[in-house]
Design brief:
By secondary structure, the chain is α/β, with parallel strands linked by helices. It contains 12 helices and 19 strands. The protein has an 8-stranded mixed beta sheet, sandwiched between helices. Strands 13, 14, 15, 16, 17, 18 and 19 form a 7-stranded antiparallel beta sheet that branches. Helix 1 packs across helix 4 and helix 7 packs antiparallel against helix 8. The structure holds adenosine-5'-diphosphate (ADP), aspartic acid (ASP) and magnesium ion. Aspartic acid binds next to helix 6.
Amino acid sequence: MKIIVLKFGGTSVGTIEKIKKISKIVTSFVNKKYKVIVVSSAMSGVTNDLINKSRKISDNFNTSEYDVLVSSGEQIACALISGRLNHLGYKSRSWLGWQVPIVTEGTHRSSRIVSIFKKRVLAYIKNGGIPIITGFQGVNFENRITTLERGGSDASAIMIAKFFDAEKCIIYTDVEGIFTTDPNITKKAKKIDKISYEEMLEMASLGAKVMQPASIQDARLNRINIDVKSSFKNIPGTLITKRKNINKNKIITGISFTKNDSKVTLIGVVDKPGVAASIFEPLFKNAINVDMVVQNISADGNKTDLTFTVKSEDLNKVEKLIKNNKKIRFKDILITKNVSKVSIIGVGMITTPGVTYRMFKALSKKNINIQVISTSEIKISVLINKKLVTKAVSTLHNEFKLEK
Ligand code: ADP
Ligand code: ASP
Ligand code: MG
């Protein structure tokens, strides 16, 4: 039995016309004798709208109710897809996460799939049915509805491919594949034929929304090859696979960037052991993700400055938590909104010296000031003024000849 998992993102099911269109993609695989499992996201805009509603109800909306609320968009999309397939004469039905069931672990809003009980869905497939499974949602051991973090339908598709031993997993989206950078920011962005899990994970974690980072971890751990392609044009996309399957590596594979970051600097923090932990503990307890962190050397050995970045949506909460934190003392707090992190990613930089220098030099030539720097083995990130992101991405795209 050749099982194939087809995942459709929000824009691919964003209108009734699009749902009709992707239903034809589904039937084309059925006609090729594949047993198809469809995974769908919510129609574009629906999840955001539900989240906004929760915010209007409370700025501290109960997280288990949040999951019940925001997962509902997927239910609508799946019913519409199976309804269309029924209309075309195919046997199809929707399956909500808990009906499969897709079992998750972890906290609400960011659960991870741990197992999928496939018996009933499998029997349905064997009987010629096309199951349309809701992405993004599952059920936990307390029988509560959970969600998998934003963009989590990607993870649903990959874990379904794993548990059903699928031959293929195709992620249909609104771009033609994975590009050297977001094709919506520069026309020079070039489609990548094959990319390794490691590089894709970095690109996604550093802002490339095209794939959810957790889903790439799942794919890498389970060695699932992923095809990312357009739901509008039938042309080859990008294969996300293990490094061994890729024969040529460029120094830099891609450039990612974030959009809504803020920088917080605490001036004159007492420099003694445990201070950084006291600052970050309440943030961690409130599920606030701290990204770049830099601590200056203290000139007098007593006081230091500490800088970190957070998502702008968390800024008010962070400010409150820091100001109400009795365990720390500091002279002043400086906040810079509207900063962005731009990162270059590539396994090639491990063996090529001078990449950091080239990046900094290219940015400085364009008068782009670097506020914070962080590096790892296969990426270099810089924090800059948000207004300069497009310019910085284009500059680096040229510098590392990514359009070639
Ligand atoms: P879906 O609704 O199909 O899940 P997403 O909106 O989550 O789609 O992801 C697709 C978007 O990711 C594209 O429209 C594009 O703007 C963005 N994107 C960011 N970086 C990249 C990249 N390197 N390659 C392709 N797309 C990217
Ligand atoms: N609908 C969810 C979201 O917008 C999940 C997804 O799109 O993958 O985050
Ligand atoms: Mg997505």
